[in-house]
Amino acid sequence: MKKQSGFTLIELMIVVAIVAILAAIAMPAYQTYTNKARFTEVISAVGPYKTAIELCVQSQGNTTTIPNECVQPGQNGIPADKITADAPGTGHVGTVQVDTTTGAITATATDIFIADGTTVANYVITPANTNGKISWLIDTDKSNCDDAAYCTQ
After folding, report:
1. Would you tell me how many other CB atoms lie within 10 Å of the CB of residue 124?
2. pTM value?
3. What is the pLDDT of residues 32-50, one digit of tens each?
């Protein structure tokens, strides 16, 4: 009679427990990675607004401020505010809006949340005109995407 060899039940249970622990550690890291990848769509959605404001400022010849006519959505080439509630199922971008006083662009996600799982991620950038060159900075007070490292520069 030959002796059978193989794994005992306790050995198999230990392996399953180790795999479960590794999976529990990997899942949050994977979730952050996928949210960051999804949030690139929100960041990309502000591109046309940034370009339009920059072109408007250049055409106005203003080298110190952002002219009022360059922050009016739907005018002077500035795209109208985007609100996907009007067209659901169009991706991860919820809204993109231009502040008509400062020129700040605010973009919000539809289904990408910050760590607490209830606060929707948003991205706010503000323009600064220095000698006719527009630079864009993340408004860390109004944005929460930088808290979760979705939109770090």
Report:
1. 23
2. 0.79
3. 888 888 889 999 999 999 9
